[in-house]
C-alpha cells in the first residue's frame, strides 16, 4: 500500500469510526480484584491497519498523529461507558502529541464529562518507548492533565529514553515495569535487582508499581515475593472486546514471607463496638454518640454485613450549623455513612493489614479497620493499636536476630518450624554450611570472614526469595532456609539450592587474593596443628523434608537437617544432598538385664 493509499485508509477509519478498543485487565492480586483496564486500539480484522504499530506508523508519516490519538481516546471512552465498566481506564498516549500546538487541548476532559466519567477514573499512560524530544513542554502538558483531575502513569519503564527522569520530576500515580524485566524474572538476579530498586523508589514517592507482560505462574510467584501486587499480562487475560472482571483464585497473592517468625493476626487487636443498621435514622446515630462520649465510630450493617461506617467527627459536622439538624435528622444512616470502609478478615496477618493501610490513600492513624468473620461483623481494630502491636513484635524479633546479618536467629527459626509441625504443614529445610571456613578466617582475618558471611546471607535472600518462606542465620557460617510445599515443589527446591551453589562457586573468588586463586586454595594449620592445603571455600547443602507426624519438635528437625548437612560435606566441594529420611534416627536404650 502506497503512502497516499495508507493516508486515505487511515482517514477513512477515523471518519467512519471503525477503530475499536480491546481491554486488558490490571489486577490487584492482594485484594483479588480488577482495578481497571488498559485500552488497546485495533482496526477492522484483516485490514492493513488492523494493529497499532502500523496504525501509528502511518499516522506519524502522514502527520495525522493528533487525529488518530483523539479517535482512539474517543473509541475507548465511549466503549468503556457503553459497557458500564468500573475502575480505572488506562489510555495510552504518545507523549509527542501532548506538546503539539495543533492538538486540541481539553478534548479528553470534555468527552469524559459528556459520557459521565470522572476524570479520576482515567489514567493517562505516557510510554517510554517513544523518543521524547521536548521534555519541558511534555512536563507542562502532564501537569495540565493532572490539574484537570486525570491520573498519570509512565508505561514501559526501563524500555529507554526518559522514564526515570520524568518519574523523579512528576511523581506519577503509576509506573509500569516493562515486560523485558518481567519475562523469566525468577531466573535472573539482575532483573530482580532492577524491580526491587523500582519498588524502593516507588515507596518513597508514593507511586504504585504495575508489572506488565506476566505470562507464567513462576514469574508471578517471583513478583509476589518481591512485593508486587498490581499485575497485568496474558496470565490474567488477553486484550478482548469483553473485559475481564474477576481474578482466578489460583493467581492471588498467597506468598506469606515469615520474616519475623511470628504469626499474629488482626484478631489480636480487635475491640467490639456497638453497631447500627443502615435503615436507622441519622438522628439515632447522633443519640448514640451523645450518650457515649468515648464512642468515635459506628459500624453500619445490613443483614449482619458491614456496608459502611459513621465517624463521630463527620456526623457532628453534618448536624452543626443553623440547618444541620433539620436537613439530616430524618435521613437514613445509609444516606450519610461513609461507604467501602477498610475491612479485613479476622485471620488476616498483622503484616498484611499493615501493608494494606500503608497503601490506602486516605488512611490516618486515628482511623479504624472493620474486622469480619465469615463475611459478618466481628469487631473493630484501631490503626494505632495495630501499629503498636507490630512495633512490639518487631522489637522482640530484633532482639533475637543475628547481629551480623540481621537475619532471624535460632529463636525465630525454631518457632517457625514448630508452627509448621503443629499445623501439619508439608515443608523442607535446607541447611547451608561453608567448607574450610575456619582456615579462611585464620589466613584472611575475622573482618574479612564477616564480609563472606554477609555476602552468603545476601546470596541466599536474592536467589531464594521467590520460592522460600524463610531465611535464617543459625550463627557463624551456618544458615537455614525453610521452604513451604504450598508455594514450591520438591524439584524446584533442589534446583534453587543448585543455583545457590553455582553462584557461590562463581563469585567466591572475589574474596581471595590473586595468588590463592591461581593455587586453587590456601595453606593453613588444621585442627590438629599440622600445615595443610585447603581448597577455596565451598558450600555444602543438606535438604530434608520432615514428616510432621514423626517429628515432635524443632529438635528432631535440627537432628535430621544436621545429618543431611554432614552427608553433603562428605562429597567435598560444593554439593547438595537431599536426604529422603523424614525423621531422625532414634537412640535405642538397651536394658542392662538383656
Automatic annotation (TrEMBL):
PROSITE patterns: CBS, EAL, GGDEF. InterPro entries: CBS_dom (IPR000644), CBS_dom_sf (IPR046342), Cyclic-di-GMP_PDE-like (IPR050706), EAL_dom (IPR001633), EAL_sf (IPR035919), GGDEF_dom (IPR000160), Nucleotide_cyclase (IPR029787), Rev_trsase/Diguanyl_cyclase (IPR043128). Residues 269-327, 337-398 form the CBS domain. It holds the Pfam family CBS. Residues 425-581 form the GGDEF domain. Keywords: CBS domain. Residues 3-253 form the EAL domain. Gene3D superfamilies: 3.30.70.270, CBS-domain, EAL domain. Coiled coil: none annotated. This is GGDEF domain-containing protein. It comes from Idiomarina piscisalsi.
